[in-house]
RNA sequence: GGUUCCAUAGCUCAACUGGAUAGAGCAACUGCCUUCUAAGCAGUAGGUUCCAGGUUCGAGUCCUGGUGGAAUCACCA
């Protein structure tokens, strides 16, 4: 009795193949061992590179069922699959590992399927909405290295979720009010002498940052003075005239004092102009902006609702608290005794506002891990309030970026400024490109654009290749590298493929994929790698982790370069393979381009 | 002190969620440009996966206890 399983190749190639194999294995258990093993229970893993094959089935756990050693179990299943599944060409067994080698014609079908799909790796709409909040800067200082990680992550996650089939809305919640803004405003008022970004020749955000620093310096002087006159340090911090003035300014702002609001608007607009420029350079964008000056009063109705529902309780001083002891947390203040809101009050309100604006299935907050506790509390409260969307709230908590010298401290001037850093990367890319590729025949403008693409690719890839959850080290020397596991390496691979494409056109190569070829190892491995792409994207989406895409794209580029070095594409002794190899190259190029786009990185046609 | 997270080659990071001999890059060393872009390729060397137990066919991965580091525990945001 024979069971022939034909593998049907659709867009989710990898799934199709492994499903067929699993069905075959299930059948094998039935026929050989009279045992029902459900397809869902069967796990396949990729074969390690040092062994023959592409799919591996581990037989250790099944000795009891087969009544045979792991090796014997593997052999009999392998035998069965070769006989009954047409895609399985051969097998080998090493200890308890059954490695399956699929036929060349199957891999050629796979390549054809990839080739036929312009949007390979991109899923059709799944009908779900997801909001991604990222960036969320304060308007009192320019963006720095930490913001770069945040922005690149947020943007990339949004791209990845979009490719996973979600309807994505990117939002930025700007912290444009509060005591820190007043500090910059006050210092400007006192020491600014009417300076403007134009007169100072500075970007607006940098100018405001200058006054934020100025405030801190003057404030420190006052504290020292007070301490010298006998105050305790603690008292001095509270009583220094500057801080009192800043606090008064905040009150004036809240009561809508005209002059204060006018100054606030003027300075914030300078900052926004500066930010726009930086975002533009970074290549990130938003679909919607929220400003805390509009949302900071929200959330009080939710406090009332919580009181009614008995989720919150009042203390003697009239302050309102959430009791989260049942959830393993503490009590948390949600409204001050004087009725004013705290951070979490407005976040509750903003959460509700976001849902009203865009009824999401998921809402992602890209915020550093120093706020883990805050979001834990926020999400638990929203769930307690019975919000249907509560389960979809997710804090993408990323680790801090350290410098070799340690932690970045804005007050100690050890921050790496975002604008400066990106400019450095462009300069390095320029220098390096001029040394490397003499004559690409670029106009000055094109050359500049190339430096931008390469420099930005380097810094983005550097920050995205690491698992977002992990704290990472930013070594300026290393980040500026353009060889090895870097963005430019992948961009270079793409440019190489473009060169192949151009050459193929010159030669008039027919790129139809001949289904009867026999494949070299390097060719097969490349196709196997290509077949993994859609699943990697889905996994990156499920884990909110661009690093999975970064790692994949690097592996693919590396595999391609091995192929490129090992085999000649326009090989005169092998003319029947020209079309296939060009098609293979172009599909690798296509996937590299798509993958890099998911990271927010462009790829050049030449470099 | 409580809670949470982290510890893998000299350095920076992986390891498909419990599978084979733990992999890449950088740094070091050896080869490869008259051949499709050498920002590349091939190779050498580098490991007690922080320590001690446990769970099982099998542990870098899971559980317990240590050690070291980070974050947080505000009527700041």
How far apart, in Å, are the first and last alpha carbons?
Answer: 59 Å
Tally of helical segments: 23
Strand content: 5-15%
Q: Are there runs of 5+ residues with pLDDT below 50, and where?
A: none
Shape: globular
Q: So what's the CATH class of one domain?
A: Mainly Alpha
Strand order of the largest sheet: 7-6-5-11-12
The CATH topology label of one domain is Isoleucyl-tRNA Synthetase, Domain 1
For the largest beta-sheet, the strand count, sense and barrel status come to:
5 strands, parallel
**Class from secondary-structure proportions:** alpha/beta
Classified in CATH, the superfamily of one domain is: Isoleucyl-tRNA Synthetase, Domain 1
- What is the level-2 CATH architecture name of one domain? Orthogonal Bundle
- Report mean pLDDT, rounded to a whole number: 92
List keywords for this structure.
single chain; five-stranded parallel β-sheet; Isoleucyl-tRNA Synthetase, Domain 1; 607 residues; RNA-binding; Gyrase A, domain 2; four-stranded antiparallel β-sheet; alpha/beta
Describe this structure in words.
By secondary structure, the protein is of the alpha/beta class. Among the domains are: 13-102, 2-Layer Sandwich (Gyrase A, domain 2); 178-293, no CATH class; 420-598, Isoleucyl-tRNA Synthetase, Domain 1 (Orthogonal Bundle), CATH 1.10.730.10. Helices cover 54% and strands 11% of the residues. The chain contains 23 helices and 14 strands. It has helices at residues 13-33, 63-66, 70-84, 104-116, 145-163, 179-191, 197-200, 204-228, 233-239, 241-254, 258-282, 292-295, 300-308, 343-357, 372-384, 418-436, 444-464, 476-479, 487-507, 521-531, 533-543, 546-566, 578-598, and strands at residues 44-46, 55-58, 88-94, 97-102, 129-133, 167-174, 288-291, 312-314, 320-323, 331-335, 362-368, 393-398, 401-402, 472-473. The strands form 4 sheets. It has a 5-stranded parallel β-sheet, with helices on both faces. Strands 1-2-4-3 form a 4-stranded antiparallel β-sheet. Strand 3 (88-94) and strand 4 form a beta hairpin. The chain is globular, with a radius of gyration of 30 Å. It starts with 12 loop residues before the first helix and ends in a 9-residue tail after the last helix. The model has no long low-confidence stretch (mean pLDDT 92). It binds one RNA strand of 77 nucleotides through helix 15, helix 16, strand 14, helix 19 and helix 21.
């Amino acid at each position: 009795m024979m069971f022939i399983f034909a593998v049907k190749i659709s867009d989710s190639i990898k799934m199709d193949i492994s499903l067929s194999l699993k069905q075959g294995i299930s059948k094998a258990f039935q026929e050989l061992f009279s045992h029902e093993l459900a397809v869902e229970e069967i796990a396949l893993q990729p074969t390690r590179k040092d062994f023959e094959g592409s799919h591996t089935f581990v037989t250790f756990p099944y000795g009891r069922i087969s009544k045979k050693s792991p090796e014997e179990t593997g052999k009999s299943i392998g035998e069965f699959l070769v006989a009954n599944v047409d895609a399985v060409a051969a097998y080998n067994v090493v200890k308890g590992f059954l490695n399956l080698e699929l036929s060349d014609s199957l891999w050629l079908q796979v390549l054809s399927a990839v080739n036929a799909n312009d949007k390979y790796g991109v899923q059709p709409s799944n009908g779900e909405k997801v909001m991604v909040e990222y960036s969320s800067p304060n308007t009192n200082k320019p963006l720095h290295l930490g913001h770069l990680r945040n922005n690149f992550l947020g943007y990339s996650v949004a791209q990845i979720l979009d490719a996973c089939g979600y309807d994505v809305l990117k939002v930025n919640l700007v912290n444009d009010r509060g005591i820190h803004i007043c500090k910059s405003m006050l210092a400007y008022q006192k020491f600014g002498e009417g300076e403007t970004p134009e007169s100072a020749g500075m970007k607006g955000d940098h100018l405001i940052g200058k006054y934020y620093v100025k405030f801190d310096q003057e404030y420190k002087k006052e504290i020292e003075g007070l301490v010298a006159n006998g105050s305790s340090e603690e008292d001095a911090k509270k009583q220094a005239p500057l801080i009192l003035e800043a606090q008064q300014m905040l009150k004036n702002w809240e009561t809508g004092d005209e002059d204060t609001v006018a100054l606030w608007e003027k300075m914030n607009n300078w900052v926004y102009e500066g930010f726009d420029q930086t975002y533009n350079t970074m290549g990130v964008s938003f679909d919607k902006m929220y400003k805390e000056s509009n949302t900071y009063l929200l959330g009080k109705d939710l406090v009332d609702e919580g009181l009614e529902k008995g989720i919150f309780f009042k203390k003697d001083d009239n302050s309102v608290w959430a009791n989260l002891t049942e959830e393993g947390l503490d009590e948390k203040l949600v409204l001050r005794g004087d009725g004013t809101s705290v951070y979490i009050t407005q976040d509750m309100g903003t959460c509700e506002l976001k849902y009203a604006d865009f009824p999401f299935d998921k809402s992602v907050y890209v915020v550093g891990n120093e706020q883990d506790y805050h979001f834990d509390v926020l999400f638990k409260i929203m769930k307690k309030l019975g919000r249907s969307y509560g389960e979809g709230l997710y804090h993408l908590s990323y680790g801090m970026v350290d410098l070799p010298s340690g932690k970045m401290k804005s007050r100690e001037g050890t921050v790496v400024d975002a604008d400066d850093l990106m400019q450095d990367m462009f300069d390095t890319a320029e220098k390096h490109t001029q040394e490397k590729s003499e004559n690409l025949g670029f106009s000055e403008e094109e050359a500049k654009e190339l430096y931008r693409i390469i420099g930005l690719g380097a810094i983005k890839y550097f920050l995205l290749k690491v698992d977002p959850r992990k704290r990472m080290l930013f070594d300026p020397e290393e980040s500026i590298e353009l060889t090895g596991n870097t963005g430019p390496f992948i961009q270079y691979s793409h440019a190489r493929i473009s060169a192949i494409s151009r050459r193929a056109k010159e030669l008039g190569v027919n790129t139809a994929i001949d289904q009867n070829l026999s494949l070299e190892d390097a060719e097969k491995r490349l196709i196997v790698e290509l077949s993994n792409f859609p699943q990697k994207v889905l996994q990156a989406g499920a884990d909110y982790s661009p690093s999975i895409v970064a790692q994949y794209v690097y592996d693919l580029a590396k595999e391609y370069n091995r192929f490129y070095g090992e085999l000649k594409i326009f090989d005169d002794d092998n003319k029947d393979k020209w079309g296939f190899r060009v098609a293979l190259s172009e599909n690798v190029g296509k996937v590299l381009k798509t993958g890099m786009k998911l990271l927010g990185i462009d790829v050049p046609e030449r470099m």
